[in-house]
Known about the structure:
Elements: H1 33-52, H2 62-83, H3 92-102, H4 109-116, H5 122-135, H6 145-152, H7 155-167, H8 174-177, H9 183-198, H10 201-225, H11 230-245, H12 250-256, H13 260-269, H14 275-290, H15 296-304, H16 306-315, H17 324-345
Helix pairs in contact: 1-2, 1-3, 1-4, 2-5, 9-11, 10-11, 11-14, 13-14, 14-17, 16-17
Amino acid sequence: xxxxxxxxxxxxxxxxxxxxxxxxxxxxxxxxxxxxxxxxxxxxxxxxxxxxxxxxxxxxxxxxxxxxxxxxxxxxxxxxxxxxxxxxxxxxxxxxxxxxxxxxxxxxxxxxxxxxxxxxxxxxxxxxxxxxxxxxxxxxxxxxxxxxxxxxxxxxxxxxxxxxxxxxxxxxxxxxxxxxxxxxxxxxxxxxxxxxxxxxxxxxxxxxxxxxxxxxxxxxxxxxxxxxxxxxxxxxxxxxxxxxxxxxxxxxxxxxxxxxxxxxxxxxxxxxxxxxxxxxxxxxxxxxxxxxxxxxxxxxxxxxxxxxxxxxxxxxxxxxxxxxxxxxxxxxxxxxxxxxxxxxxx
Length: 346
């Protein structure tokens, strides 16, 4: 095909005509669309595996950096196949080949790229977006394979939407919307807020790693301390417990229960007029007490208030007095506080 930028069949060799490039005989021929897709799959797989393993204690991973650079180049390679290079138009057959390979069931590259997006630099993220946008329009055997793929994998839209909202400056507005006086609107906003903070666990964990300070400052001041609405306060404390107990948020919980400011908030909530809020607060308060890595300032506060806490806990009961789990948790908290007292006296 005249003007075809990429080889449409694997047998094409560089050398003459449209395939000839400056650099002559020794220039390597470009990868075919299936080869490009396969290369991207290998790179993304490697990056995701090694990102999940961590950074190796802060040690620079040059091999990972190299693959990140290679991935950026390969995504641009895809982009050129689909859009052309400004001098030559894209080849229809090459576009179809790329689309077909991209959405192969055994490849599932779309999902891998969505998961990998947070690890890519801004320029590569833009290139991925352009590639995906173009693929939505590509037909293979008169079928919009991208649409068929998304229909079968609609959860990816949820992940993308959640990531977009969490990274948007508009997300902060939720704390104000929840204060809206109309209860029905207030309730709907909080349900959406809770969904965003609990549905996509890895995305939320990454959000907290970047936004911990301002998020909990807003959460405490607008949803727990100043909220006059009983419903919002109780739901907020329940959500706080869910966030902290989620395994993927282990780093968040460790940081939260090491804060004396947060401990003081929870201890004051234990004295709330509402029994239901007291119980919800207890489920978060116990995390401070049973934490094996308690900072000294947390230990000091608990020790200084041990007598008041023990008196309170002695008669403290759940709404459901037959709740064995609650009673077991309460017994453990009492035991931990008594242990602190014994350590102090020894």
